[in-house]
Amino acid sequence: MLKQLEESVFFIVASEKRSCFVSMINLDLADKLRKDLIEQGFKITVPPYTLFSAQKKGISCTLYASGKLTIQGKDMEEFITFYIEPEILQSVAFSYPETQVNTLPHIGVDESGKGDFFGPLCIAGIYADEAKIKQLLSLGVRDSKLLSDSAIGKLSAKIKPICPHAIVFISPKKYNELYANFHNLNKLLGWGHATVIAELVSKTHCTDVIIDQFASEDVVMNALKQKNIQVSLTQRHRAETADPVVAAASILARAAFLEGLEHLMKQFEIELPKGASNQVIMTGKALVQKFGPQILEQIAKLHFKTKQEILDSIRPQ
Predict the structure, then answer these.
(1) Which of 30, 78, 83, 292 has CA atoms 20 to 30 A from the CA of 145?
(2) pLDDT at site 77
């Protein structure tokens, strides 16, 4: 009982001050942790009552014989988020402190692909109650932008059997048709969010919804009114970093985007880069030269200025 109380006190201090993080780890991972820290440039010492202590500029990490791991320093946040949580803890105790997580039943919604010239636009939503939220946390769910493509695929496959979910997958061709009707990306996104929310409300009867805010608050509310759906809607900037249900939705949305992009790459036998970089323009130029300008309707979002940059790059000067 005392040990449990001690651990909970450590946890609260960490979540409030964020200057020191303490967690219990499986000692079977001690050798891996030591080896990984050496490879990351940490200097190892063995103070009394410890298995080892590791230091480098901005981070101090100590593992005790009890399995207690303490981490502190001005650079600890990135170290914990990108290494300790996924590789050692396999949880998000630091990213989503239990004292701050909303464990009330709710729906979380996020999208992926809106900034990518090639590939689909995908909006995903998830419903979770307290038990399911704890399951999501145990899986290591976090903002999809912090995860590799392979990790996103694996997590998506684990999340789907746990939580009721809905995904709106908009292929590039369909996206261009919808954009021609909406004439506005935010309105298209609002329609997509409202469609996902409506399906999950129908499935779960839950009306508490949190989304990652992408526009003025009335965009999604108006789209919901058009569907005659009434919910308690919370819109937050970067909601996927604060709410594990929205984070899980971001993973499903990104997984759907990656699957759609992979399908296009296989169909046209070409690597399609993400985003809207110079590499994207070069790839688009190669595709237009091979298939003609009409190919862009099937693989890309035509309202991006990238389209004109591609066409301009192949016109005779």
Answers:
(1) 30
(2) 82
DSSP 173: H
Other C-beta atoms lying within 10 Å of the C-beta of residue 9: 11
Q: What is the pLDDT of residue 11?
A: 34
Q: Do the beta carbons of residue 116 and residue 98 sit within 8 Å?
A: no
Note if the pTM is more than 0.85. no
**Is the torsion defined by CA of 91, 48, 77, 257 positive or negative?**
negative
Whole-angstrom Cα distance, residue 122 to residue 168? Answer: 6
Q: Looking at domain 106-263, which of 1.10.730.10, 3.40.50.300, 3.30.420.10, 3.90.550.10 is its CATH number?
A: 3.30.420.10
The dihedral of CA 213, 218, 222, 225: what is its sign?
positive
CATH of the domain spanning 2-89: 3.30.310.10
Could you list the beta-strand ranges (E) of 150-269.
165-170, 208-212, 232-236
The predicted-structure confidence for 162-199, as pLDDT tens digits, reads as follows: 999 999 999 999 999 999 999 999 999 999 999 999 99
